[in-house]
Amino acid sequence: MVSNQTYENYVATHILQPLGMNRTVFSVDELADQDDVTILYTNKKIDDENQIIAAPIWHDAPAMRAAGFLKSTVNDLLAYLEIFRLGAVGNPTPILSADSVRQMLTPFARVDGHRSYGYGLMVSPAFPDGLLVEHGGSLKGISSHIFSVPAQGITGVILVNLDGVSVRELVLGFLNSYFARPAEAPLYNYDPYVVTDEQLSLYEGRYSSQEWVSASIAKCEGKLYVEVDGLSYSLIPVQKDSFVFQKRDSIPWMEFFRDEDGQIARMSYGLRQLTRESTKSPG
Question: Where in this chain does the record put each Beta-lactamase-related domain (predicted)?
Fold first, then answer.
């Protein structure tokens, strides 16, 4: 241990306290003397009907706290986002140099045709109004998203005490409205991209990850379909080995990757890599 501090103490000393994030904690027990802590809710199927029920126990995993589980507030997270709003345009920040901030916001790992991962943050250089910085999170009883468009001086936070809420779509709808576009307008337009019927067959099969995420790709009447979570969606080709589809109020990007022999070996979906298990879709 380089600092001779626990992870929790290091974060509190070097990040939370300098930024004045006094309502941000790893354990809700630290707020036991305060009465304005939210109650969590979750979706549960009862008697074949989806219902929203109280789920007051906060999920925690001490061994995984570096990957999440920090509890916070809108005001505290806005203070945190000032690092990237200020640093991205060259201004000093309380805990990082502007050069370090710019390095964090540099695309390092491609996620899809629009987004990449920097250092701990999703960055979208192609966003029509300037670089979009964002990150989301979800646990039982929680849906959250933070975002910033530094060039426009914008930061924002969405915190919902219910899981399964499409918070990123709320962010994109807000940004559309802010920049005088219809709230539901797609951010990106795609030129027609033709894939032959023979080429479509190359993608068919079942794909899965080690995190129990799975998807099936099948061709029907000259179109490619993906089945995920028991529902089927029509895929629209947008680039070589890349497709998008309409899933409720979002437009996910799905990308396929080839092995050394040029055969489809895996695909990306939902920020996960899925390995191809079979070349035949379920019949």
Answer: 2-164
